Amino acid sequence: MPATRKDSTNDQPAGAATIKPASARGATRRSAPKGVSRKLFVLDTNVLMHDPTSLFRFEEHDLYVPIMTLEELDNNKKGTTELARNTRQASRLLDEIVSAAPNGIDAGIALDQASRGMATGRLYLQTEAIDVRLPAALPTARGDNQILAVVMYLADKHPGREVILVSKDINMRIKARALGLAAQDYFNDKVLEDSDLLYTGIRELPADFWDTHGKGMESWKEEGQTYYRISGPLAPDMLINEFVYQDGDSPLQAWVREKRGRSVVLETLVDYGHQKNNVWGITARNREQNFALNLLMNPDIDFVTLLGQAGTGKTLLTLAAGLTQVLESKRYSEIIMTRVTVPVGEDIGFLPGTEEEKMAPWMGALEDNLEVLNGTAGEGGDWGRAATRDLIRSRIKIKSLNFMRGRTFLNKYLIIDEAQNLTPKQMKTLITRAGPGTKVICMGNIAQIDTPYLTEGSSGLTFVVDRFKGWEHSGHITLQRGERSRLADHAAEVL
């Protein structure tokens, strides 16, 4: 969905820096005000490689693609990486647009037909040699500097028009501003401007909640759980599967199970903090962990996202719930675990062995948590624990993201670890692998992104949290409190 653009007189570029709030998606797109010239956005190569559909994301404004951008696309089109695939897609889109131009490309190509109404501006390709004298410190042999020369030329040629470079490269934007040129990041794929606005899945009820929402309340019990049908000022803002809580003399922990107009149905939770409800020997140590286990253990929830810093228990809770439902209740046939293999330090080169053996160095978190869970499996001595460990390992498969295309997982418990390093497109590829009976759990910490060009606002994990909120078969929890150790908790706070 294209982003809402600010008025053309605004400093921020409509195509590159503003985002429509989630509540306003689907609002009608505004066209450029009469008498105000459209902005001209010059696209850097990395924008097209990051999002090939960026050609259609600038609504009423015009785009300019320099020859050097096309050259760099050509140099990066080979390979099987995500960047190479995006590059080929961008080239195909450009070819479709140019091929459909009835009057040639000199006067620009209207984008409304190619974009199916998403964009009403025009696309201009560089059709002439441009000779601009750059400062001596900027060698013209570099592609980036040639694109800057094009921006300088266009700024001189159109003095009454706003010409803006759009680039994902921070240094490129700094150089542009040093030359007195306008430059912006491409923010159209950002879900949120500020990660603090991200949906947490939790809502604290005010002290006077029952006074303002208790009128006409219905209450009943069903299969050991208590249900409340309430209406009031807060009810319309609540989302399905959002958790609510209230502390005090009569504490409440519940989640929204149904929503109709201005009324919602709250269901009390299973208390996984109590030993009688332990999950593979694990009990919830805080409120958010209890919320997370309610999502992980509920068969009606097909998609779960867990956010939280290191030590909040994301992997341990997910594995404990998975083992219980695979080995005890037989709800799923096996656990499949995958993660993005982005090294924190220097890469260690090619690894020998099978797919699972190659993934083993990235799966230290899995082994650490299995060691904890194996210790909770009961008595039986060393032999018993070894047998349990072998049984557990036989039901956990480790897969690489590289071989996920075209697969369908039936009746599986699919765990996607370090999901903050995935792009929205990669996230879509993974989640659409789920067949009937499969549950997908995405875990990550958006403060630890290692992938270039991804930020907290544009990460695939942020993307799915925002897009899936309110769906009756999905749930999200942001875990707040670290439970690893007092040393780890203190380090997370002060370092």
Automatic annotation (TrEMBL):
Region annotation (Disordered) ranges: 1-31
Domain PIN: from-to ranges: 39-174
Pfam family, one: PIN_4
Protein name as catalogued: PhoH family protein
Keywords, comma-separated and alphabetical: ATP-binding, Nucleotide-binding
Transmembrane segments: none
Entry's family note: Belongs to the PhoH family. In the N-terminal section; belongs to the PINc/VapC protein family.
Superkingdom as given in the UniProt entry: Bacteria
